[in-house]
Structures
1.
Amino acid sequence: MAIRQRMGTSSAVLGLLVLAGCSTSPFDSPPSDTQSAIRRLSMPSDSAELGSVYRAEDAEQKSSGMVVDSSPESYVRYALFHSPTVERAYQQWRAASERLPQVRALPDPRLNIGFFLDEVETRVGPQQAKVGIQQTFPWIGKLQDREDAAAKGALAAWYQYQEAQLRVVEQVIKSLQDIVYLDKAIGITKENYALLRSLEEVVRARYRVGAGSHPELIRVQVELGQLEDRVIGLEALRPSYVAALNAVLNREPESPVSVDIDLPNSVASENAEQVAQMARQWSPVLQSISQRIEQERVRTEIARKDGYPDLTVGLEYIVTDEAANPSIAESGDDPIMLTFGINLPIWREKYDAGVRESIARRLSISRDFDAQSNTLWAQIYRAWFEHTDADRRVRLYEDSLIPKAQESLSASLGGFRTGDSEFLDLLDTQRTLLEFMIAAERARADRGKALATLNRLVGRAIPTRDANSSQSTTPQRTHENGDES
């Protein structure tokens, strides 16, 4: 009989162990659709946002390397894959997502084993030892709230990961714009140097035959020296621009960068107010703060439920030896005891303070949301002005100033050959054209850099049109922030 009772007891203890091993409390309802979606998003296999496409090929890419050609997309891909800033944000998101299985699990069951140093004599025999197991079940809904709070924290980290990628993309595009501007400025200056060199030969020949003056020859030689110095300065500046780009790419500072990078010639087709409206929906900065606000809202509920008692269920099994008189009924039977217990949250000030703390933290984050929103709107309007103002300057130089300067230079060259114009007028015209052409390239670079800033602030590529046409297009976000439209 004692053996049968021990077998029944073992089955009961095993049942409690199985119940204790469940990941959720039996008092909790099934997770909501929102929680299930959050849980799926927090798993790496379902990552469909920025950067996930090349994360899946981690081992292969690290072994074979990534090819960087003259396209800006290749630089963006390389930077997103190799940037330590992106990798840090990615690992922070992974760490936050790993909180979910930790907080939704029940507390560990407790196994108690005790031996009687002085056996307790009972009618059915002396009690020798006691074995017990206990499992605590948190208050109704507490585990779900903890999981929901952790999931919202993981989503906040996910948006921070997106923000890190967007910042890296912006840095890559801005560095490429600077390098392209510098290369074109060098090329324009060299072309003007070659033109001035040919004029110097003409002036020198005229001076030999007495048709030219010595001051003219000296003046053209001074201009040549200034242009030569300008070329040397621009070429000396390029390694610093290349080092800045390689720093974003996580490469050696001297790693080569192509001299024929083809950057898009795009202009925003939306006004500042429309861009700001897009940022309200897509900005990862605001999305991250919103998730943190919701996380604190759930934590407030958790703090309230911490003031409610948790239930503890247990089984105790007492090992009992045979009685001195074997004829006694139930001799040697092992008693089993089912126990229930609750904690007593009587120190109410502690729990009330926890609720107030969570509410204050949520209000603090809400004010941070307002501050970040105001800063974001100001940055968008500033970047939009810089972008449109640079586009205005580009059109001014391309459509008006440069053609007129070229026409004036042609007229001065013709007049100089026929002797109808002074050589100093020709130099002034040539110098003006040089400055206009370099200023146009600077404006193009400023336009592209401001557009990259707008894309980063909004959280994705904004609609654009080709600068040479009026048709509006929405570019693939693979180039701007690593995703596709």
2.
Amino acid sequence: MGFFSKLVAGLKKTRTAFTHASDRLFRAFSGELGEDFYEELEEIFLLADFGVPTATALTEQLREIIVERRILRAEEAREALKELLCRTLGDGERALELKTKPALVLVIGVNGVGKTTSIGKIANCLREEGRKVALVAADTFRAAAIEQLFTWAERSGTTLIAQKEGADPASVVYDAIDAARHGRADTLIVDTAGRLQNKKNLMDELAKIFRVIDRELPSADREVLLVLDATMGQNAVSQAREFTKAAPITGIVLTKIDGSAKGGIVFALKKELGIGVRYIGVGEGMDDLQLFEPRDFVEALFSGEEGEQ
């Protein structure tokens, strides 16, 4: 099964809650679209986990488009909705900006969202691009985090830089920077803590890591990726909102688009927080994490059960 087919399969729940319901709505309200239509459309957005602010905004935007274009036919309204969703997501997020050598990718996320798995897959992508990658075990307080990262370093053909459990995360990052200076790596992927329940500790820890990087590699390119579990819906949006207060997030890795995902959060993240999804994961395979393409996502959302468009 190709990546697009997996994406279509992963959006099955969202497609049932949103696309199938909206199709029924458009068919029922052929001709002039009254207030009842827009109220029901907003409810459909909410059921697909777009969130209240995004659902309200998109409903009003579609209303304006329909009035402005004098749309009367259901199929035209459906296409207008599809176009609006594509425009909301934009042209897509840029690839990782890692032109300097060394360069850094810091990865943040709470336990259980697939952070370590995502790090391994990103490492594999960068290694295949010809980069010399090292994984940096700076999430030193989570049980088994170092062992899990070691496994992914082996699977992705990259190096692991670690200290003992409970070590100072900033010290681990310093060791990694020193290793990069000595030619052991040109790209450092840093696994950082995600203890959101104690935000002050998280912020202090991240601030210390950033200070080390600012001092030792002030001109190095750096990306800060937040890993979110798509199955968590609006809870994931809330996590993103809190993490943006703790770190300068440059992009999101959305995992577990696996058949139970609440795909509407992609639009909520972009609309409410202005943060785009950079990578999207649709399975456990090494190639099941790829750069997010908004138009492909919307096409998958509107595709039939077998992935036909």
3.
Amino acid sequence: MNSWNVDPDKLDSLGIKTVIIASPDMQGRLVGRRVPTAEFSGVVNKGVTICTCVWSWDIEQGTELIDAGKFALCNTHNGIPDVTLMPDLTTLRRAAWLEGVAICFADPYDPQTGGMVEISPRVQLKKELQRYQEAGLLPLASTELEFYLFVNDPVTLRKNNFAELEPSTLYSADFAIQDGNYFEPFFQNLRENLAASGVMIEAAQSEHGKGQWEMTFLYGDPLMMADQHSLYKLAVRDSARKAGMSVTFMALPVNGEPGSSCHIHLSMKDSDSHALFWDPELPNNMSAKMQSCIEGVLHYAPGLTLWFAPTVNSYKRHRGDGVAGLGNSWAIGDRLATVRVLGNTAESIRFEFRTAGADANPYLALLGLLASAREGLAQKLQLREMRNSVSKSGVEKSLPSNLGEAAEAFSASSLAPQLLREEERMHHTVLAQHEWETYLSKVDSWDLNRYFDRI
């Protein structure tokens, strides 16, 4: 048992009054129900019900797709049914940033068949990890998550249509100690609460954007990493709101400022815990297996970009200064490449995937990265030429440039059918197409300011 894992029989002695049973939705947000501690023992055996709509409506909980019968999972013809969230007790922990609250991750089950509901991003990631286990492979992952912190009250900010944003730093302060010191009480309290909640932070810093910050997680099991990632976002947002501040994990929230990334680091061991990416006899110590994994990631990235860049706003980050991953490339230590190779020992060698934004669903982003790396390894793909920072050679097949293109590429992906049934593939595609069409059909302030009296 991990040090943070709570015995369900000791909730009362820890002063826990409420237990949240939670699972990620299609955007990676936690959804579920909360129960009094006295009721949790019953929930362990029978679960709690939750509506399938949470995986079927859009980010604003719009029900147009449900009403139109676009999903087999949830529509007006099947009565918009419930499923059962069954707690995973290995994840039960205090939500230490909330007084008297514990939280437990759960997976949805169909009450009729008893099978897992496969549209769940957490279920999909678990299935990929099962493929790794069957192949005798042990993946290790970590995410670096950036966000913007504003000193505005979040309720007032939304009421004012997000006007007059006041960033927490007023100039670029990347790695700057002085600017971090002012907010150290906030971040120190946050780190302590995260650690008590089983979210282990490796390091934190102020970033280049005005009001931008970053925290990195300790390396570990990808499912544990995705759970920590989603808990972290919840804790950061809750803690900021309690302090009268606002947080956004948008990929690019402010014009003229850097985007917020979710860089993902990945390495791999075999069943005997030998590092598979290290070979001191090969250039840059990159084993043939590592090279095949990287080529798999690059080869399948266009078709899986939907999982790395899931919103309309994602692609505004991609049009920035190149540090979101130039084209579809790899290099040694080069921040402009899609895949950056790092580490100079068997224990530290890994690659960093730089395309995913802070808005990515961590379960789906890790699923896409793991699956493409595994497939590259299985096919023994030959690694393409390394990106040349001067001539920009080694850059091939640019990634989709907007959400509409990403939805089309996902629909045509040769890897997605190996990971998902047709029903689930269509579910992802339809949600993305709906988001893109909703964006295209709306007139906003940009249109009016640019065209109203000038055209």
